[in-house]
Amino acid sequence: MPNRRQVLTLGAAIVAFDALGVGWVTQAQADTGAKGLPVPRLDGELVTDVAALAEAADDYGQIAHRRPRAVLRPGSVSDVVKVVRFAAEHGIPVAARGQGHSTFGQAQAPGGVVIDSRTLATVHRVSARGVVVDAGATWGEVTKAALAGGLTPPVATDYLGLSVGGTLSVGGIGGATSRHGLVVDTVRELEVVTGDGRLVRCSPTVERELFDAVLGGLGQYGVIVRATLDLVPASTTARIYHLTYPDLRSMTAAQRIALADGRFDYLEGQVVWSGTGWSYLLEGGVYHSASAPDDRAVVRGLPAAAKTEITAMPYFDWLNRVYAVVEQLRPLKFPNPWLNLFLPDRATDSYIEKLLATLTPADTGGGPILLYPFTRRRLTRPMVSVPDSPVVFILSILRMVAPPDEAVVRKLLVDNRSAYDKAVAVGGTQYPIGSIPSRPGDWQRHYGSAYGRVHRLKNRFDPRGILAPEQGIF
Predict the structure, then answer these.
(1) Is the Cβ–Cβ distance between 139 and 164 less than 8 Å?
(2) Among the four residues 117, 231, 285, 421, which has the most C-beta atoms within 10 Å?
């Protein structure tokens, strides 16, 4: 016999759609005589219960809260096809949601359907040819499965709790981007449900236009349901070098040298409050399985650091180092108005110096400030818009407002907008995972001369314009 929760879920399950009346019709409403167009039979469930809608109207940012009318928990890829096709026929907005790690409502669909991809999370095959994985799987799950075969994804995001589909929709960046590009640059093949409800297999040689559009395409052209990803041989140990500098330019000079000669497998950096002012931390990693590297050789030729710390830990423990902290913070629901920018090398130092002159620890709420470079030539996916510069820096101010305070959030959003405008003025772009209030013309500037192509691809793959409406691109 079903328990009470199962009975409530069954009652909230959607069985029809009334375009002229109440919208979605649940089983409970149908039992009392409500009618509508039958919803396709699903392997999973389409629900309207309060808990599901509240979760889908939420994300890590805790700033935007836009409720959908229904949530799809797919039991198969076929469910995604059926619901997206149904939504396209009736003009219903649709957004795919992975682990809900957006910060400004990017994966929300007010009045529409949110696809909860967590029910499609199987790691199917792992081999030297790559890993085949459903979009709802997390990078932690993928990495563990790969390591069992002595392999690893080439690029790891700092937080392994992100979903594969969500990461591939925005780009995906981490310390190994200096060697391998973005996460989207390591994808071999995709299965995508387009905005008109077609399931398409695409790759660099098959349906190339859709492949390029979806990777870093912010969910505008299709819903990623499965991906084949590159893997590389894994090391067992991460040897981490923390070099502290008293001034910004010494740290970024060291980063540029390390980027150019490739001495680190992992290269990042942070701006850290020391109690009386900002200090600057180069964070480099060398991965190995046999003997440890020669530490003096690793740091040779870099500007002399005020302090050097070297630690070693198991490879997976290093990749997973922030997971526990994020999981502890998530239930606290602190607002996170993040700022994420790509800056051209030529403008980075002066831009950061001016920004830090106006920034206090209270403006970050204890969240980290990340700053590190990568080479533009390693980026191969056209939808990820970065500055026209051989070397690009990412600046991430991962602001946190604790305890929650709406007035502080509003102020920081204004600050984000101001910082973004100044970045655009020096040739920068945004990495669109943060919280920047938008204005007309932003996306035209973001995509530049490619904006016409972006429009054409939207019309081709999502002709009804139902996908990912809260990105605000169209």
Answers:
(1) yes
(2) 117
b/e map 324-346, b = 16+ CB within 10 Å: eebeeebeeebbbbbbbbbbbbe
CA distance 123 to 141: 8
**How many Cβ atoms sit within 10 Å of the Cβ of residue 261?**
10
Could you tell me if 431 and 173 are in contact, meaning their C-beta atoms sit under 8 angstroms apart? yes
pLDDT exceeds 50 at position 14: yes
Tens-place pLDDT, residues 407-430:
999 999 999 999 999 999 999 999
Q: How many CB atoms lie within 10 A of CB 425?
A: 10
Query: Tokens 């889908």 sit at which residue?
Result: 56
Helix%, strand%, coil% for the chain, nearest 5: 35, 25, 40
Residue type, 95: A
Is residue 144 within 8 Å of 124, Cβ to Cβ?
A: no
- SS3 track for 64-115: CCCCCCEEEECCCHHHHHHHHHHHHHHCCCEEEECCCCCCCCCCCCCCCEEE
Token pair, residue 408, equals: 């502080």
What is the pTM assigned to this prediction?
0.93
Over residues 101-124, mean pLDDT: 97
